[in-house]
Amino acid sequence: MLKSMKNFNQLLEHCRTYHAFQRDSVDKKELFEALEASLKAPNHKFTFPWKYILISGETKKKVAELAVEVKSKGEQLPPAKIEAIKDKFLNPKLVAFCQEKSDSEFTSKEDYATLSCSVQLFALSLAEKGIGYKWSTAKITRDERFYDVLDLDPNKYEVIGLIMAGRPCAVPKPRQRPTLDEVLTLRN
Questions:
Q1: DSSP class of residue 174?
Q2: Helix 28-38 × helix 105-128 angle, to 10°
Q3: What are phi and psi of 166, to 5 degrees?
Q4: pLDDT in tens, 34-68
Q5: Within 13 A of 69's CA, how many CA atoms are on the CB side?
Q6: Residues sharing a CB contact under 8 Å with residue 108, sequence separation 6 or more, in sequence order
Q7: Closest CA to 63 of 96, 88, 89
Q8: Chain centroid to CA 94: how far?
Q9: Rounded distance, CA 119 to CA 34, Å?
Q10: Is residue 188 very low, low, confident or very high in pLDDT (cuts 50, 70, 90)?
């Protein structure tokens, strides 16, 4: 028999997108536990479309530099703006969640659903540890140079998100969400 998860709804109440993280605030054990949890996502037909890339060291520095290039659009940015962009990528742990491509449109859609569920499980596992996250689909994740930096074949994989994880610098206020009454239709 399963144990009651009395704190699950409370955990959900504290999940939100964080935008600034303390540098190196997550250890590998915490991160790997959350990645393990993410593999429990439902997966129709057991295609197991996951590929995770933990970005660190020199690769992380290259990603930060590329982020500045993409964000600047070829214009000169002030030094403070450059440092702010770099910090967004250098402070948190970075994990690229990638989906193996399929020739079947239906399978691709289901595999994307699997990856979306895996991101949520990852986030919940992190939140339980007091770690915040951001699922970024910023322009950099679709830039061919990002795939080059990650040594990832864009013909085989698609980056569905760059997940940033770390202890947050500040906790944003929760956003208003629809109530159940607003979205539920009952049919007898």
A1: P
A2: 140
A3: 180, 170
A4: 999 999 999 988 999 999 999 999 999 999 999 99
A5: 12
A6: 99, 101, 102
A7: 89
A8: 8
A9: 10
A10: very high
Q: Where are the domains of the chain?
A: 18-166
The mean predicted confidence, pLDDT, of the chain is 92
CATH number of this structure's domain 18-166, picked from the four choices 3.90.950.10, 3.40.50.2000, 2.60.120.260, 3.40.109.10: 3.40.109.10
pTM given for the model: 0.91
CB neighbour list of residue 12: distance below 8 Å, 6 or more residues apart: 124
- Percent over 70 (pLDDT), the chain: 97
- Per-position b or e across 59-96, b if 16+ CB within 10 A of its CB: ebebbbebbbebbeeeeeeeeeebeebbebbbbbbbbb
Spatial distance between the Cα atoms of 185 and 177, rounded to a whole number of angstroms = 17
Q: How far apart are CA 26 and CA 107, in angstroms?
A: 34
CA dist 98 to 11, 95, 159, 170, 172, Å? 26, 9, 4, 28, 27
